[in-house]
Amino acid sequence: MSEGTAAIIGGEANDTWIRRARANVANAWEYATRAQGGRWDRWEDAHVSDLGSSCPFLNNITLIRPLDEMAAANLATRIDAFFGRQGGGSSLLWSGWPTPDLARHGFNFWGQPPLMVRAVGGDAPDQPAGLRIDEVSDATGLVDFEQILVNGYPTPWLQPFTPGCAFDARVLGGPLRFWVGYVDGQPVSCSAAFVDAEVVGVFMVATLAEARGKGYGSAITWAATSADPELPALLHSSDAGRPVYERLGYRIVTRFDLWECPRKAPS
């Protein structure tokens, strides 16, 4: 792995953060999938969840332990069989450890997103003038969240936007929480958090292109980060988003390997 592999944040070594991150990611997507009637399973080496979505980010495989060359072919066969049972787009495989070359199994390497972590405490960023942040509590707010996720992230697989393309109200009221930022009554930014016993996992931070550069991204990220102020927080960042998160106190500890796994129809 690249930069930050020897870093220690808040006295915790990298392997602790990798364990927390893979558990939080796996459980977040399993929760969303189970709540909405999707398919899921827990294998000894990976947890899988499938919403049958056209968006790869909603169909996931999270490795629970390092993957070696000998085990890769067997895992790829099981992934193809699991996701081939229903329609939808590709899935994404997340690994906190270096992976073998999975291209030989038909997977596409998407890069190494940084795992960033933040210790408990610190001050909230200044709230931009005119921004109101609401936690989503009903179907109407969830539609606003989806709209920003699809158009602001952006998420081209789900465009043009239609309500319910990513989530429905069955995900509300549990450990997966959502926030929307509004300016003049119009949604402009969004974030989500999955809160478990050890950490707050921050997901799906997005701001509309025309609303960027005004502090909305920092403010909406903070809303998710502070979902439980007694817990540290972590997130997977794009390299472009790193400066925003670093200003909030996040630091890179390592990078995950990320692979796209095309959905194959059963033979």
Can you tell me about this structure?
This protein is an alpha+beta fold and 267 residues long. It has two domains: 14-115 and 255-261, no CATH class; 131-231, Gcn5-related N-acetyltransferase (GNAT) (Aminopeptidase). 25% of the residues lie in helices and 27% in strands. It has helices at 14-35, 69-83, 139-152, 216-225, 242-247; strands at 39-42, 46-50, 59-63, 91-95, 108-111, 114-118, 131-135, 176-183, 186-195, 200-207, 233-236, 251-255, 257-261. A seven-stranded mixed β-sheet has the order 7-8-9-10-11-6-12, sandwiched between helices. A six-stranded mixed β-sheet has the order 1-2-3-4-13-5, with helices on both faces. It is globular, with a radius of gyration of 18 Å. The termini are far apart.
- What is the count of structural domains? 2
H/E series: HEEEHEEEEHEEEHEHEE
- Supply the number of helical segments: 5
Number of strands: 13
Instruction: Average the pLDDT over all residues and give the rounded result.
Output: 94
Q: Runs with pLDDT <50, length 5+? A: 1-11
